[in-house]
Structure formats: structure tokens, C-alpha cells
Amino acid sequence: MQSGIGAGDRAGTVLRVNDQVDTFSQLAAIVGEGHVLTSDGDLAPYTVDWTGRYRGTGRIVVRPGSTDEVADVVRLCRRSGAAIVPQGGNTGLVGGSVALQGEVVVSTRRLNLIGDVDRSTRQITVGAGVTLGEVRTAAERAGLCYPVDFAARDSATIGGSIATNAGGISVLRYGMTRRHVVGIEAVLGSGDVVSHLGGLIKDNTGFDLAGLLCGSEGTLGIVTAARLQLVPIHTNRTTVLIGFDSVTAAMFAVDRLCSSSDEFDAVEIFFESGARLVNETFDRSLPFDAPCFLLIEMSSNIDRTEWLAGELERVPHVVDVAVALNDAMRTNIWRLREEHTPAINTLGPPLKFDVTVPVGDLPDFSEAVHRSVHEVTSEASTYLFGHAADGNLHVNVTGIDPDTQLARVVEEAVMATVVAFHGSVSAEHGIGSAKKRFLSMSRSSAEIDAMRAIKRALDPDGIMNPNVLFD
Ligand SMILES: Cc1cc2nc3c(=O)[nH]c(=O)nc-3n(C[C@H](O)[C@H](O)[C@H](O)COP(=O)(O)OP(=O)(O)OC[C@H]3O[C@@H](n4cnc5c(N)ncnc54)[C@H](O)[C@@H]3O)c2cc1C
């Protein structure tokens, strides 16, 4: 059994816990022996990230079952000088959820309590380990909706989605995760517990800790519970797949449609090469071919299909349109978009970029990014897809070993293109360990210094997720 815990980087040195310390039994005394995992078989699901690119070296996973247990684990690690990587569903795409330098993984999956929906405030309190899918189901049973949604919904947790301030398919209408977190409970890196779950809409009593923890990527503390704002559910949903002869034509349509209604939930974009890959990988059927596709979904209390059809008649350069007439058709259309990430992953760990540019620049950017990769190497394939109305493209480059110098050059070329378009090097996945050398391309040194000062205040010994965010 492993008795010492590898520790994190504090002021540039790697600390080691005294090997004599019986870490296992101390952790077991807090969470119960069955919830301290150390065997290869038990550690396996917690060790490799979703992309397969990042492999942890940590030898201990702890699974606390309550906020008090999380606090005791954090305090023990702090006393021992051991660093911690919080982990939820392990679906993050920037290498932030695995123990790259032997840290202790604190899994939140047992923090899975789901409170009742408060219909008067349209709010719900849930544990950090509850999945997005479970929250969405609980909300739907009460006739409401938790509008943060994306393909990893059945594994990604509320804690992880808060830590990454996740976006997803409905940001256009409902905003990112931060907008829906109206209260939070967390154990800070200091070991202190902060809890503010009242959910008052108006509550200007100092710093907004919930807002601060959103997007903090586990560097400040471990989120243990959250109070979430739900939204009304609509009775009618219209889902269409539209083919265009170019990305310029597609983005013209996005501009026109989004200026005519605020009832669009999702406006997703993908291209011929990605659609074909999904088809071939998962044996799906593409209703028609086109160079560029928009998947558009509206929800309303009246049927919007006819209105949308009328609008589309006035949009030029449409190749074809498929309207989902039932749930099965809707699922098939969504698969074409949502299966891009798993289909690309079958080609080996890709170089993943998740960037935003001003929406109007998306056509030029999509051409420029292809060009910038091609100028470095002709051996790579570049797949683009994403959330069109947010100007958010997922750029996936395959055919290159991500751990080579060539990959670094491609990464720099792509990020330089993003900056040339005044974009952001991370739209919704966060910085993690994958993007930290690019943080200064989107944030000034004064901003990064302010972030570091906040980290020092809440995590004085630097034990919380030391491999992410800051280089
Ligand atoms: C197929 C697929 C599609 C995706 N689509 C989208 C998308 O459209 N939009 C989007 O934004 N993301 C998307 N993602 C990325 C990912 O699902 C999100 O980042 C998600 O929010 C991570 O949640 P998780 O529970 O899996 O967190 P993890 O992967 O376990 O962790 C992610 C980060 O959060 C930290 N963390 C986890 N739990 C806690 C906690 N309780 N307290 C503090 N820190 C914590 C970890 O240390 C790590 O830094 C997608 C992923 C996949 C695989």
C-alpha cells in the first residue's frame, strides 16, 4: 500500500509527505476504508482524462460523502503538505481533472444529494457530484429546466461544470453556468468551509464567492453543493438541420435569424468533414450533403416551425433543410452534432482548441485557422464545430502526436490566429494544464497577478490543483 502522498508545487519545489505517515489509515478514518482507492483497477477510471491525452500519476483517490468529510480531507492534506486535484465526472477537455504529479484525487461523485425544487423561487440545491442530466431530470419533473446542457450531460457533474463555468448548447439564450449559480458551498484550500445557499436574488453583501468559484478550475477549493436557478420549460420545440453552401452563408443566416427572435435555444455549426466522420464512425445517416451545417433549435409556448420555415425561405444559399417531426428525428439530428467529440477521439488524442472570436469574424477565422495549421504541416486534419451564435469554435487537429514539438508549433499557430482575430484562447472548457502557457495571450499580467493573489488568499499553501491555470 502507498503510504506517502506526492505533493504539489509550492513556490517551485515539489514537496513530499513524510513516508512514515500512514496516509491511507488517516484518510480511511475520515471517509471509510472503502472510499480510499489505491489499487490499479480501482484507480483506472480516475487516472486518464476523457481525451486520453493526460495520464495521472496519483496513487490515491478519496471519495468523501459529505462536506464535513471533504473539509477533513483538505485539512489533512494541508497538514501533510499534499496537493489535491478535485475530480467530478472527469469529462473536462483541458487536462485539469487528473493527478499529473502524484496529487491526491478528491472525487466528488458521492456528494450526490438532490434537494426538492422550490417552485416559488424556481431553485434547487444539489450536491457537487450530481450530474447535469440528473439535475435536468429533477427540474423537468417539476415542469422546469436547468438550461446548462451539453453532450457530456450524463457524466459531467454540477461541481465540475461550476469549476469550469461550462457553457454548452444553450448559452445564446440562457448564458453560461455562472448565471445559474445563486448560492454555493465549498471547502477552500485553507480547509475553511464557506456556505451561502440561501439563493436570494438580491444579496449585495460583499464579494460574490459563487461567481468567483465559477471558472476557478479547482484552484481555490472544492465545491461541495450549489443552489441553482431553473427556468420555465416551453411546450413546443422546433429542431432543424440546414445545409449551406458556405460558412459565410451560414453565418449570414445566424445573424438574420437571431436578430428576429430571442427564442433560439441552440445555433450549432459543423462542416461536411465532421459530419462524414460521425456518419462513418457511428453508422449514422446524414439527411443530405452540404459544405456547412447549422443545427437550430427553438423553444416556445407556440409552434414556431412555420415561422422558422418562412424565415429560412428568405435566407440565401440554403442547400437543403431537414425538420425533426418527432423525438427520434430530433435525436438523430442532434447526434450529428454531439458525436463530433467522440468521433474525433477515435482518431487518437487530438490537439483540442476551444476558442471564441467575434461572431462576425467566424467565416474568416474558420478559413484562417485551416490555413494556419496547413502552413505548419500538411499531415494534419482540422475539424471545426461549435456554438455558432456565440462565436465559439472547437478546433480539433488530428494526425499529430500531441506530445511533440510539431504539436507545439501547431498550437502556437492556432493561438496566434485566435489573437489576430481578437478572440479568446479558451471559450468554455477552461485553461486546465493544456492551455496555461497561452493564458497571457488573453489576460494581462495585472489580471494574472490579481488571480494569483486571490489564490494565495484562499489556498495559502498552494495545495489546490497546482498543475492548472498558472504556468
Ligand atoms: C463529449 C463532450 C462534450 C462536451 N461539451 C461541452 C460543452 O459544450 N461546453 C462545455 O463547457 N464543456 C463541454 N465539455 C467539457 C466538460 O464536460 C465540462 O468541462 C464539464 O463541466 C466538466 O465537468 P466534470 O464533472 O466532468 O469535471 P471534471 O472533468 O472532473 O473536472 C474539470 C475541472 O473542474 C475541477 N473540478 C471538478 N469538480 C470540482 C469541484 N466539485 N470543485 C472544484 N473543482 C472541481 C477539476 O479539478 C478540473 O479542473 C464536453 C466534454 C465532453 C466529453
Distance between the termini: 33 Å
| Mean pLDDT level | 94
Strand order of the largest sheet: 16-13-15-14-18-19-17
Alpha-carbon Rg, integer: 23 Å
Query: Helix amount, in percent?
Result: 25-40%
Shape: globular
Stretches where pLDDT is under 50 for at least 5 consecutive residues are 1-21
Class derived from helix and strand content: alpha+beta
Number of helices: 16
Sheet-strand content, in percent, reads: 15-25%
Ligand set: flavin-adenine dinucleotide
Number of E-state strands: 19
* Major pleated sheet: 7 strands, antiparallel
Can you give a write-up of this model?
By secondary structure, the protein is α+β, with helices and mostly antiparallel strands. Helices cover 33% and strands 22% of the residues. The chain has 16 helices and 19 strands. It has helices at 23-31, 40-47, 67-80, 132-141, 158-163, 171-174, 209-213, 247-260, 272-282, 305-313, 327-338, 340-345, 362-376, 405-420, 439-442, 445-458; strands at residues 6-10, 13-16, 36-37, 61-62, 84-87, 104-107, 123-127, 144-145, 181-188, 193-196, 221-229, 231-232, 236-244, 264-271, 292-300, 318-323, 351-356, 381-387, 392-398. Strands 16-13-15-14-18-19-17 form a seven-stranded antiparallel beta sheet, sandwiched between helices. Helix 1 (23-31) runs antiparallel to helix 3 and helix 13 runs antiparallel to helix 14 (405-420). The protein is globular. Residues 1-21 have low confidence and may be disordered. The site of flavin-adenine dinucleotide has 36 residues, from strand 5, helix 5 and strand 11.
